[in-house]
Amino acid sequence: MDQITSKVQIREIVAAAKQQGQQSGIECLILSLQECLLNKKVRFPLLEFAAREIMLFMPEAEQLHFTDRLIATTEMGSYVLTGIILQQRLPEHFEESIHKACTYITMGNQWYVCDIIGERVLGHALLTSPKKAIPLLEELAHHPDKWIVRTIGVATHYAVKKGLPATYVDILLKLLISLSNTTDFHVKKGIGWGAKTIAKFHPKVVACYSKEIESPESKQWFRTKITIGLNRHKSGAKQTRQEATMAHRNQ
Question: Fewer CB atoms near the end CB (10 Å): N or C, the chain?
Answer without folding.
Answer: C
